[in-house]
Design brief:
Blueprint lengths: L4 H18 L9 H6 L7 E10 L3 E14 L5 E13 L6 E12 L2
Antiparallel strand pairs: 1-2, 2-3, 3-4
Subcellular location: Secreted
Protein name: Attacin C-terminal domain-containing protein
Main location: secreted
């Protein structure tokens, strides 16, 4: 199995994003004016990592990040996004890569 540097870079980038988004600065008593000026949004995202191996076929390694990017004030429209990377190692078909970016717009009534 060959080592792929781009896969390591993707994992590192996803790890940095997860660490920077998970440390929020707490609000203090005197921050009431700041709270009034800024509306804080709760950002949630999901990071998924996986690998499967089958003898004679090879190994598939994948990483995916999913996040809600935007939501209208009424809540009727939202924009979700995801990015994924998959790499196949070995087997009869050889090595292969797949990169995907997705945006999904949801309208509700």
């Amino acid at each position: 199995m060959k080592f792929n540097f781009s896969l390591l870079l993707l994992y590192g980038l996803l790890l940095m994003l997860a660490r920077s988004a998970s440390h929020a600065k707490p609000l203090r008593e005197g921050d009431s004016q700041l709270i009034a000026r800024l509306q804080r949004y709760k950002r949630q995202f999901s990071l998924n990592f996986g690998a499967t191996h089958e003898d004679g076929y090879g190994t598939d390694v994948n990483a995916e990040a999913i996040a809600s990017l935007w939501k209208s004030q009424s809540g009727n429209t939202k924009l979700d996004g995801s990015a994924s990377y998959t790499q196949h190692f070995g087997g009869l078909s050889g090595d292969g890569r797949d990169y995907r970016l997705k945006l999904k717009v949801v309208f509700t009534r």
